[in-house]
Write a structure and sequence with these properties.
By secondary structure, this protein is of the alpha/beta class. Strands 3-5-7 form a 3-stranded parallel beta sheet, covered by helices on one side. A 3-stranded parallel beta sheet has the order 4-6-8. Helix 1 packs parallel to helix 6.
């Protein structure tokens, strides 16, 4: 069961009911997002952020802590080994990495966060609107060139570089939006 709170809607200034999780769940969600924000603020290298993302996705997708490499010599464990290795952002090539004009110094530290964004959206947690809006906003503070207050990123928003994007206050990015961020963009209003 969820509780609801009345908040002004960004588009129409009318009051709508926004479902909220139960208080216990909300506290856990807020604690997890705050923990990740602190970790990504403290750890800004690609290597350390990749380890954090690997460990978090390992728990979200496999339901257990990352415990090192599995015995990939066993044929029966190969599929699980492939999955476990693919969770680590360092073992994945994103489309932006194939572009010659990519600013690798700016991209490399945020690559793990982009991978986390995409991985999160493909889990059951990505379906949780309340948590997803907060999770993506937290990551956005570490990925984008600028992020105003009250920006809402819905599920399955796709961008390639991230560091070229700036979002004005109260911008809404609708589900499934694909943003061509090869050149710097300042976005505001509702984007779909």
């Amino acid at each position: 069961m969820t509780t609801a709170v009345q908040e002004p809607h960004q588009d129409t200034q009318s009051t709508i009911e926004i479902p909220r999780p139960m208080p216990e769940a909300e506290a856990i969600y807020r604690r997890w997002v705050a923990h990740l924000h602190a970790e990504f603020s403290r750890n800004t290298t690609c290597v350390r952020r990749s380890e954090i993302v690997r460990d978090e996705l390992h728990m979200l997708l496999l339901g257990r802590p990352h415990g090192g490499r599995m015995n990939a010599a066993l044929i029966s464990e190969l599929p699980m080994s492939v999955l476990a290795e693919s969770i680590d952002p360092r073992n994945v090539t994103l489309p932006a990495e194939m572009e010659e004009d990519l600013d690798r110094d700016r991209f490399n530290p945020i690559k793990p966060l982009i991978w986390f964004w995409r991985g999160f959206d493909r889990t059951v947690l990505g379906q949780n609107l309340w948590l997803g809006l907060r999770f993506r906003s937290m990551l956005g503070h570490h990925i984008f060139a600028g992020l105003g207050t009250g920006v809402r990123f819905y599920r399955d928003v796709v961008f390639e570089r991230g560091y070229t994007l700036t979002f004005a206050d109260n911008t809404i990015i609708r589900p499934g939006t694909r943003i061509n961020d090869r050149e710097p963009l300042n976005l505001s209003g509702t984007v779909s």
